[in-house]
Structures are given as C-alpha cells and as structure tokens.
Amino acid sequence: MKRYFDNASTLEELRSQYKKLLKQYHPNNKNGSEEATKAISVEYEALFKRLKDVHDTRQIDTADGKESAYNAHMYDWENDVALREVLQKIINFSGIEIEIIGQWIWVFNAYSCHKELNAMGFKYAGKKKAWYFHTETFRKKSHKVISLDDSRKYYGSSKVHTADKKDLIEA
Q1: Using one digit for the tens of pLDDT, what is the confidence trace for 87-131?
Q2: What torsion, rounded to 10 degrees, do the Cα atoms 18, 24, 29, 35 define?
Q3: Which residues fall within 8 angstroms of residue 109, CB to CB, at 6 or more apart?
Q4: Can you tell me the distance from the alpha carbon of 64 to that of 36, in angstroms, rounded to the nearest whole number?
Q5: Dist. CA 110–CA 89, nearest whole Å
Q6: How do 157-160 and 130-133 pair as beta strands?
Q7: 169: Cβ–Cβ under 8 A, 6 or more apart, which residues?
Q8: CA 33-39-42 angle, 5° bins
Q9: β pairing state of 157-160 and 123-125
Q10: In this structure, are strands 97-101 and 65-68 parallel, antiparallel, or unpaired?
Q11: Cβ neighbours for 55, distance < 8 A, ≥ 6 positions apart
Q12: From CA 40, how far away is CA 112, in angstroms rounded?
C-alpha cells in the first residue's frame, strides 16, 4: 500500500498535506482516481486519530527565549497581576459598574471618568456602551461580533463591588 503523507507530526501539518493531496489526486485530474482519494482519506483518518491528542510542542520565540506553543497558552500570572493593578486604579471611581469577563475588564456607566479610563489604556465599545481593558496577552483572532451575554456564557463573569464615596464617608 502506498503512503501519501510525509511524516506529519501535528494536526496542522496533517490538514495541510491532506488538502494538497486531495487537489493532486482528485478524480477530475489526470493523475487522480477514486481509489487514490479513498486511500488518502483512510490514511488521514488513521493519522488524525493518532495525532488528535498530541499537543503541539513546536518552539516559538518569546521575549524570554524559546517556549513551546502549548506552554504559551497556559495561565499567565503576569497577565493576572496587570489586570489586578488596573482594577485597583479604577475600583474607587464613583458611580461606575465593573465586570470581569474572562480576561477583560468592562466598565459601565463611566462617562464621568472617561478621560481617566482612556489615559489608562481602556477602549470604548460604542455598540456595547462600555469601556474595556485587556492586556497584550489576549488578542481576538476573528472579526466575529460577540455580544456581552455570549461572552459571559463562554468565559464566565463576575461583578466587582466598588466602594462608593458615600460609604467611605459614613464609615
């Protein structure tokens, strides 16, 4: 039996080779046939089953040197510290509502402090009528518009109780 795939070690390599092979051996091409296409699909399925649970261990360049792509997506404590620092700066603003959705900080009803938020790196989402902040670690990969409710369901959320200035005076 002929082998069609060349040492695919990741799912990305396997998928790339699969697409190229299907184009090359498609029954409409002069070198192609239905038997070759079926054999490619059978071999793809077997390799896919073997590779689906293997994590990508390729090396990527980071500021600290080389790191595996799998480790690059693990929890980042520095990101957590940065979010906490920003949260500490805004928690005493009067009249705002703060909600953490995933790794994003969302601020609602913040017209009175919009200049301060802008100076700290917050961006305004006009359709959501809220300010948001995230670190450079997280970047959205698609242009799909996601509602806040969908984000809450997918990433989880928690509201931050702010200390209102009236509470501070009474205490």
Answers
A1: 889 988 888 999 998 888 999 998 889 999 999 999 999 999 999
A2: -50
A3: 95, 96, 97
A4: 47
A5: 14
A6: unpaired
A7: none
A8: 145
A9: unpaired
A10: unpaired
A11: 70
A12: 63
Which residue pairs from 94-99 have beta carbons closer than 8 angstroms and sit at least 24 positions apart in sequence? 94/164, 94/165, 95/164, 96/162, 97/159, 97/162, 98/159, 98/160, 98/162, 99/157, 99/158, 99/159, 99/160
The residue type at 143: H
Q: Which residue has the tokens 């997280």?
A: 138
CA separation, residue 129 to residues 98, 140, 142, 156 (Å): 13, 19, 21, 20
Mean pLDDT of 21-42: 86
* 3 state SS of 124: strand
Query: pTM score, two decimals?
Result: 0.52
